[in-house]
Amino acid sequence: MSIYAYVYAPIGGRITGRVNYCRCNPSNYDPSCTGSGSSHLPCKGWVDPVDIAGTGTIYLVVNYPTVRKVHTRIEYQCCCRNSSDYARAITVDLFIYTNGQHCYVGSVMYGHIGNPMVPNDHDIYLNSSWLPLGQVLSGTYSCNGLMCYTGAHVHMERFGGETLAPCCCASVSQGTTPIYRFLYT
Amino acid sequence: MRRWVGALFGLGLVACGQRVEFPVLPMSPTPPPQAEASAPASPTPLRCEPLADLDAPASLRLEDLQWEALPLPGAQARHLRGSPYPMVPIRRESIEGAPFLLIGWTPSLEPSVTFPTPVATAWIDLKDAGHRWRSRGAEAPWPPCGGPMELLCKPAPTPTPKREGIRLEKAEAGTLWRIDPRTGQQEVALRLEAGWTLGEIRYARDGTYAVVVASGAPQGVETLQIWRLELRMGAPSRLLATWPVPGMGRDWVNADEGELIGSSYWVIAYPNRWGEGFLVDVERGGVVSPAALGLPADAYFLGIRLAPDGRWVAFELPPPSRKVQGPQDPGVRLYVASGADLRSGFWLEGMALVIDRWRMVGWGEHPRFLVVEDRRDGGLRLVPLPPEEAPRGYRLAGARLPLAVVPGGVVTAGEGGQVMVWDTKGQRVAAVDLRPWYRAVHALLPEVEGEKLRRVWIGAQLQEPYAAGPCTLGPHGLIEWTLP
Lengths: 185, 484
Known about the structure:
The complex is a heterodimer of chains A (about 180) and B (about 475). Chain A is mainly beta and about 180 residues long. Chain A has one domain: Distorted Sandwich (Glucose Permease (Domain IIA)), CATH 2.70.70. Helices cover about 0% and strands about 50% of the residues of chain A. Chain A has no helices and 16 strands. Chain B has a five-stranded antiparallel β-sheet, with no helix packed on it. In chain B, strands 22, 25, 26, 27 and 28 form a five-stranded antiparallel β-sheet that branches. A four-stranded antiparallel β-sheet of chain B has the order 3-4-5-6, with no helix packed on it. Chain B has strands at about 70, 75-85, 85-95, 100-105, 120-125, 135, 165-170, 175-180, 185-190, 195-205, 210-215, 225-230, 235-245, 260, 265-270, 275-280, 285-290, 305, 310-315, 335-340, 345-350, 350, 355, 360, 365, 370-375, 380-385, 395, 400-405, 410-415, 420-425, 430-435, 440-450, 450-470, 470-480. Chain B has three domains: about 1-10 and about 45-155 and about 360-484, no CATH class; about 165-230, no CATH class; about 255-350, no CATH class. The radius of gyration of chain B is 25 Å and the shape is globular. In chain B, about 0% of the residues lie in helices and about 45% in strands. Chain B contains no helices and 35 strands. Chain B has about 475 residues and is mainly beta. At the A-B interface, strand 2, strand 3, strand 5, strand 11 and strand 12 of A face strand 10 and strand 15 of B.
C-alpha cells in the first residue's frame, strides 16, 4: 500500500514562481503552467522551487497523523546567505509513522522566514496537521547589488517527493492546496 | 584521523503618461547619520561562528595545505590539495609590500539563488614557494585541528571605494539627506510620503546625480517611484516615473540596475509587466517601452544585463510564442545593443545570457565582445560586437563555465579538469589538462601583467579525496597555472 506525506500551502495567496517565474496577466493566467518568466532557481540546490505570494503566518501543514514527526533546521540559505531575515530558511524533514516507527520520506525548505517559531535542529512530534514556522516578510531586499526579494512571499523547494502545486498565477488556500507529496515505500 | 563525510555534495519611448514633479522638500530636525560609507582602515579580524548549512563540518588546518609541483607536460603549475571545501581564488593584493592571494571557501557548488559569498577566507603569501598563511587578524588565528569550527568563519570584508564629494544618505524612514563633507553642509534631499520605502542609492558614473527607487502600495497596488537627485546642494529632486508593479512576491531578479551610457536611460531591476526590469529616461522622465527600442510591443525581458562599462546592454527575450519551455528553452533569444544606438541592435536567436552563479559573465571590452550560451547545444559562443564578421559568433568548442575575461579573449573551464584560453576569434591559444589529478573546475581567477595573461588561479575538485595533514582529508584543491 502506498503511503504519502502531503505538504499543503503554508500561506494563502497566489503562485508567482514555479521552475520559471510566473507572468500573470490581468486574468491571472500564464500560458505556461510552470512559468513563462525567467528561471527560478532554488536556495538550497533542491528541486521544483515554488513561490507563493501572500502574507501572514507561515505554517507547515501536513496530513497528520500519517506524518507525526518532523525535524526542523534553521539555516541561512537564501539571498546572500547572510544573517538577515530574508536569507533565513527553515528546513523540515518529514517522517511518516508506520509499523510503530517514524520513517523519513523527504524534506521541504521554506525560505525568507521572519520570527522563526521552531527550534533549530530539533525533533517535533506533531499533535495536529498545523505547525507554525514563522512570518512572511514584507518589502524588498537586495544584497550584493542584486534584488533577491520583491514583495511578500514564501519560497519552497523539496528534497525527494513530487510536485502537486497548481499552475502559475493560481490561488492557493492555506492548509488545503497540496504543494508537494512524498511516497513512502 | 578525522574522517571527512562527503555529504557536502549530496546534497518606457513611450512616456506612459508619467508626470514629472518637483516636490517641496520639508526640513527635518533629525540629523543625518554621520557614519562614513568607506572601507575599514585596517584588516578586520575573522570572527568564527557556527554555520548551520554545513551538514558535515570538517576540519582544516591551513598549515596542512602546502604547495606541491604539478608535473604537467609543457605546463608550469603547482597546487594546494586536500581542502574539505571548495576553494575559490578571490583576488591578489599587496599586503605590507608582499604579494598575497585571497582564498575563499564555499560550503557548496550547487547552483542556487545563493550568491557565491565565501564562508571563510584567508590570505596566502605568494612571495616565495612557501606556504605562509595569514588569516585576517593574527589575534584570531584559525583554531587547531580537532574541532568543527575551523572553516566556520566570517569572510573578510570586501573594500568599497570611498565616495568623494557630495553624497546621499538615508536617515529615518523615507528620508534622504544630501551631505557635502567639504563644507559640512547638509540638507534633506527627499522625504517620501508615509508608506513608501527607499531602495538603494545608485550614483551616476559622472558623479553628478543619483537614482533612487522607492516602493510602496498606494491604493493597494504595488508601485515604484523612480527619483533623480542631483549631487548639488539646494537642487530639487525629480520624480522621473511612477510605475505599477502588481502581483509581485517572488525572489531573485535577473537584471542589472544602472545607467546605460550613451543614452539617457537607466535600467531598473524589478519584475514588472515588461519582465525582469524596465528602462527609465532620466532626462525627460518616464518609463521606456520595449516598442521604443524597436522591439515588439508585447515584448518582455527574461533578463537585462549591462556591460561593465555600461555602454552595451543585452536583453534576453522569450520565444516569439511567449511560451517558455522550462529554464533551458532553446527558443529564447538575445537583443544586444549599444547604449548610443539602442534601435540598431542585433538579434541572436537561440542564444541566452551566460549567468555564472547569478552574475552575468562574458562581456569583453578590448575588443568588445560578448560570450553567450547557445541553447541548441548548451555550448558557449564568443560574439564580436558588433558582430558583422561572425553573425552568430565563434563556437568555443568544449568550453564550459566558469569563465573569465582576459586581455584579448577569455579563459574557460573545459571537460573534466581542463582549462582553456581563447582569443576573440574563438581560437584556443593555450590549455592545461589537470585531469590526472582533478575532475572538475569550479573557479578561475586570471592574473594579468600589463596586457598579458601571466597566470590563472584555479579552484578544482580532485579525483580522489586527499589527506593533506593530520586533520585534513578533502576533495578540493587550488592550482596556480603559470603561462609561458
